[in-house]
């Protein structure tokens, strides 16, 4: 400043004019130096850092660069120059220093925020992030960061100790609890969800209360984001997963088997004892040959031992077409390439009702993919419905319009029977 004033003294201008002009020249000079320093920091230093990062084998530093941590950090350079140049203007020194310091605090907050984002991204690159997500904790850290940063900025502007402002916040604790109610509940829920391993990113969950049925794609401080199978997005409050019930299908996904539980209804009027002709036909079926041989020997031995009169089929033990059919389905499923052999496989009768006798298939496919599972299930029941008449059985079906038309066209109906 003295050098500039000495150069302007020989121009014949008044002292006041020289003071204004020298101040303007100094402001321009500091601005040029700041711009030049910022240019060097971004175009030279930053490029060298990026080149070093791109040439090493680590990935975490590349993520830091992608989150523009160093770009944001470069904004501190001109602020530092302005802060340490404030003494040149004694009348405005305090104001300039406060403005520069406030700017540096804001830049520091943005740098720390970018670092937290980078840390979250780095953590997500590991498989453990699906089991122990930390996005909720990152959001809590950001809230604390912004609150502390805001207090420091305010204290810097008003020239007060930050502890005084913090002590004043104690009186506002009730208001803060109300404002951050969801965040506090979300934090507590996040800790419980994570510690108890209740839900992970990628889990298929079902929560009818919120019309959620799909995969978890994100877990944050306040919400759990679910992409439903119709590609809609449902946002569930984190604490709702603690207070309400929901179904997690992870066990099915981990086990590698998906349950098939469906019944075929048999018309009870088609159930009968097996005749010799029927048994002869059944013995030609590959899956029943060994079963029938063993079963017939067991029945004959029982009837002979108890001196059963076999002239009447109701005496002693006899095979029924529905029993043989049930065994056929069981053997068919045991030999099916898409059925899980190490999980429960049952073909059982349920209580008969108005729709006939239910034969329930309880088994697990060895492929959990939805499309494959539905295809396997459909193929199995296609075969069951097609093979039932071979055993003299009819699948139950309520009369349709076609059945009524067929009845009207029958000779018995025309004769009035």
* Uncertain regions spanning at least 5 consecutive residues: none
Q: How can the largest sheet be summarized? A: 5 strands, antiparallel
Distance between the ends? 124 Å
**Domain module count:** 3
What's the average pLDDT?
82
Number of distinct helices: 19
> Reading side by side through the largest sheet, how are the strands ordered?
4-3-2-1-5
Class from secondary-structure proportions: alpha+beta
Strand content: 5-15%
Q: N-to-C SSE series?
A: HHHHHHHHHHHEEEEHEHEHHHEEHHH
**What Rg do the Cα atoms give?**
41 Å
> How many strands?
8
Helix content, binned percent: 55-70%
Question: How does the overall form come out from the CA principal axes?
Answer: rod-shaped
């Amino acid at each position: 400043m003295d050098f500039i004033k000495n150069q302007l003294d020989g121009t014949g201008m008044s002292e006041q004019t020289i003071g204004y002009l020298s101040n303007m020249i100094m402001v321009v000079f500091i601005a040029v130096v700041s711009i030049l320093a910022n240019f060097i920091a971004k175009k030279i230093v930053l490029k060298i850092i990026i080149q070093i990062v791109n040439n090493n084998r680590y990935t975490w530093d590349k993520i830091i660069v992608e989150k523009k941590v160093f770009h944001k950090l470069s904004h501190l350079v001109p602020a530092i120059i302005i802060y340490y140049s404030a003494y040149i203007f004694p009348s405005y020194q305090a104001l300039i220093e406060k403005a520069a310091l406030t700017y540096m605090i804001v830049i520091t907050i943005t740098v720390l925020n970018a670092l937290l984002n980078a840390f979250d991204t780095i953590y997500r690159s590991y498989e453990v992030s699906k089991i122990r997500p930390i996005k909720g904790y990152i959001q809590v850290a950001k809230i604390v960061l912004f609150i502390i940063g805001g207090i420091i900025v305010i204290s810097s502007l008003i020239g007060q100790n930050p502890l005084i402002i913090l002590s004043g916040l104690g009186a506002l604790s009730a208001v803060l609890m109300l404002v951050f109610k969801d965040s506090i509940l979300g934090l507590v829920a996040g800790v419980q969800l994570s510690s108890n391993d209740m839900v992970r990113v990628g889990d298929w969950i079902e929560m009818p209360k919120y019309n959620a049925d799909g995969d978890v794609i994100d877990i944050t401080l306040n919400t759990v984001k679910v992409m439903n199978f119709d590609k809609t997005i449902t946002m569930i409050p984190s604490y709702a997963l603690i207070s309400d019930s929901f179904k997690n299908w992870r066990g099915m996904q981990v086990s590698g088997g998906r349950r098939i539980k469906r019944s075929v209804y048999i018309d009870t009027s088609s159930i009968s004892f097996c005749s010799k002709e029927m048994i002869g036909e059944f013995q030609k079926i590959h899956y029943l040959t060994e079963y029938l041989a063993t079963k017939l020997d067991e029945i004959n031995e029982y009837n002979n031992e108890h001196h059963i009169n076999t002239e009447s089929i109701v005496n002693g033990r006899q095979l029924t077409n529905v029993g043989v059919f049930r065994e056929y389905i069981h053997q068919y499923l045991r030999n099916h390439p898409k059925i899980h052999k190490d999980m429960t496989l049952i073909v059982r009768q349920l209580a008969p009702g108005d729709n006939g006798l239910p034969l329930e298939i309880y088994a697990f496919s060895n492929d959990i993919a939805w499309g494959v599972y539905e295809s396997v299930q459909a193929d199995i029941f296609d075969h069951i419905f097609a093979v039932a008449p071979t055993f003299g059985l009819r699948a139950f079906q309520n009369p349709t319009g076609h059945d009524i038309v067929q009845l009207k066209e029958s000779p018995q109906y025309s004769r009035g029977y």
